[in-house]
Amino acid sequence: MVFNRNLKNQTTQATQVKTIRVVGDRAAGKTTYLTALACLSGDDPDSPVKRVVAMGEETENLVRKAKDCLDSKQEISPNVYGDGIEKSYVFKIEFKEKSLPFSYPTVLGIQCKDYPGEFFCDLKDKNNPELLEKYIKDCVEATGILLLLDGTARRDGYYTDCIREFLIQLDRSSSQNAIPNRRVAIALTKCDREELWIHRDSPRDKIMARFQGVNGQLQNLKYIHVDYFATSAFGMLGNEYEISNSTVERTDDSGTRAIIKESNSRLWRPFGLVEPIYWLYTGKRY
User: Fold this and answer.
1) Residue 164 domain-assigned (yes or no)
2) What is the DSSP string of the chain?
3) Is residue 209 included in any domain, yes or no?
4) Does residue 7 sit within a domain?
5) Whole-structure pTM over 0.85, yes or no?
6) Is residue 184 assigned to a domain?
7) Number of domains making up the chain
8) pLDDT tens digit sequence for 75-87
């Protein structure tokens, strides 16, 4: 684990904390993503990340419970709809010396909210209007949006309808909001699967091919800047012959449900978790 109790209550004036909302369908991997992010360590020599510090009791509780699920090879429980508005998870991400270009920030402070997948569904179906409005208002106030798409899903029409309504609401609100050129990071999840791993360096092309309708919704946005990323919370095992660090429990058109094979930090190599957050925070890619 990456907890450092000497640091958990400290704040650094030089590090600005920016707010990010994690949005996506049910079982897209949102909570697993945040858990993997919190468990990043400096054991991977190829990663620029030195460590990630979970800040505050609520964040530590989230990660502790989720890590217990990972260690016992169980699926991580989803959030309850309505709770995500109140729960914020705060992380400090520190980078190794000389791992980033000169003048790039080497410490990020982020405050995340993990939206339940039911919010994503309600965008299309217009259910729970009062709760939906509450989530939208909360989302508009964030610095950036991380939109996770299960790269193994075949739900282009459904995703398109949900994302269309989400972007309409966000774009409309952003025109009157103090945040110009709001950033939305579109990230394919579960890229440890073979059919996605081979496209990890070209996520935009894969998104355009797999989710053609979604891609159409991402064009001609006046107040939103979009970029594309590939991620895997479980990552790969091995060096010369890499294999997925996940065991598939179920797969169908709605996507893939899987559990981790190896949660030992010396072997566990999550992929692409920090890149979208860094871009949302700075507008730069490293």
Assistant:
1) yes
2) ----TTTTT---TTS-EEEEEEEESTTSSHHHHHHHHHT--TT-TT--EEEEEEESHHHHHHHHHHHHHHHTT-PPPPPPTTTTTT--EEEEEEE-TTSS-TTS-SEEEEEEEE--HHHHHHHHH--SHHHHHHHHHHHHTSSEEEEEEETT---HHHHHHHHHHHHHHHHHHHTTSS--SEEEEEEEE-TTSHHHHTTTT-HHHHHHHH-HHHHHHTSS-SSEEEEEEE-BSSBEE-SSS-EESEEEEEEETTEEEEEES---TTT-B-BSSHHHHHHHHHS---
3) yes
4) no
5) yes
6) yes
7) 1
8) 877 777 776 677 8
